[in-house]
Design a protein that fits this description.
Rossmann fold; 53% helix; single chain; 12% strand
Amino acid sequence: MPERTVRRPGRLFRLAALAAVVLAVSCAPRKRAPEAPPPEPPEARSLYEQAERRFQDGALAEAAVLFERYLERSPGGPSAPAALLRLGKIHGLRGEFSSARRTYERLIAEHPASPLRAEAFLERLALPLAEGRPAEVEGLFPEALAAAETPSQRVRAWTLRAEARSRLGERIAAVEFLLRALQEAPPAEREAAAARLRLAILRLTPQEARGLAARPEGELRMDYLLFQAGMVFAREGRAEEARALLEAFRARYPEHEERPRAERELAALESLRPAKPFRIGALLPLSGSHQALGQRALRGLELALHLHHAAGGGPPVELVVRDTASEPGRTAQALQELAGQEVSAVVGPLVHVEAAMPEAERRGIPLLVLTQKEGVTRAGGAVFRNFPTPGAQVEALVSLAFERLGVREAVALYPDEPYGRTFADLFRRAFEQHGGSLLAAVPYDPRATDFAGAIRKLLPYTEEVPKEGAEERREPARPAARRGRGEAPADSVRVCRFQAVFLPDEPRKVAMIAPQLAYHDIRDVFLLGTNLWNSEALLRLAGPYVQGAVFVDAFFAGSRDPAVRRFVEAYEAAYGEAPGLIEALAFDSAVILAELFGRGGARAPAEVASALRAAEGFSGVTGRTRFRETGEPEKTLRRIEIRGRRFVELE
């Protein structure tokens, strides 16, 4: 907009204007000063404080009820915007996305002057990503950015927009938006924003990097982006992309202050004899029904290679990614494409493994598959499983029950569907092989919400004894906490012959069953679970009833293991959230291959397969892994106990 020249009013004009204002004020009727809003009733304030405490403790269901009661009592109260923001967050955490969206929109509409309105716009912007509908982010972005009041809020808006574009496969746009986020970032957030930008740059294919180099100047200045992207690729050993970007930078900005650095880097690239990089292929479902799983695995792979190159000393490794589209036909075709790229090994598939197996066997390309699907490995075959199998989980769990908990007799309650039947059968065999006695294995309808019928079938393995004789009848090993409020008769107590209940089901069902066990006086026994229990949802939904419960898993983000802590910190810095099992297994798969390349230089697929079988083991964030001749893994699983409102790793 052209500047306008504004003349200063003369002194006489200013005096006349001042006199007019004084006269107008003196003649106008006096207005009463606005009254302060009435104080919030103590009972409403108490409700809000209770709700906030329950939220901080992780008791989301109780917190939601209290926040709703507060809003019914004080819809226009001073804490109403904060209550709505918390309530929307709770709905989102519980997967109630429509309710979350309505709650945020209520805050936006009813409290236009609240400073929390901007946060509501941002939380609404994040919902489509949680729902797996990234295309919807673009329509919500302008309002969220306009409402942002602080640099941190603008950073989050641009970052969410970038994540949506990345999930849609628009990686150049994602890079541009993350650069905008970096430019907005306050000093305390610049390092994390720069890390996200670096990882997004490394996601670019060679063709996309060349496209970025040719991109014209627009709303976003290209000098910084071309220079930084070129330097990132140079540090990662991707000389072709680095050269294209730095040459474009040098040609387009001959007077730029960073030109000398670009010249030095280009000279270094020319002087180095380019070592042929090792190539790892990735077969991932980046679109289709399993795209969320594929995106998580891709993050783990990219972070592993980023840290590998940042540490230095190892051979250059490239990642060549192909989207399987969550379809068997595309999976087979994608493996053929990777074979043409001279990959030494492939991480994946995650689903439809059987579609890739014939081509992998024919070409001898080792696949590190991230699945527990049975029947995919064989002696001397091309498939290596890097995933905790049901058998490995059960063996580790039974060992824990015998060695640490002193369990000798147990029962099993399991859903009558393939997952439950598989785990119940494995548990029976492992428990009896250890010398234990499985007194009962009771199935239940996986659609049920009332489990009284199944639980009553366990009662024959309990007995009621007079209170004075109860203590001497009990086994010595018991959890410290009782789990519920079911009352035994006043003059007797129910004693279980078994010391543990094996319950292979997901957290929502466990949260229904555990209180019903307590109601039927099945108490003071250990609950044993599978890695499905490694979820904050279990603590939120069933915390008081699962104290002392144990399970095993390959990955535990709260571990004190230094390698795990470094991985979690790096992942959170790059992606703003904690990693899960799939991210960790993908990370370890890339680390295993990079370590193998560095040990002996195995490059041909057949050499890599032989080296994987011959290696004594690899230490990673998912424990120590060794591959048998069959391609099945021997993994050291982590033992996890529930204490209070947190998971604790057992030594």
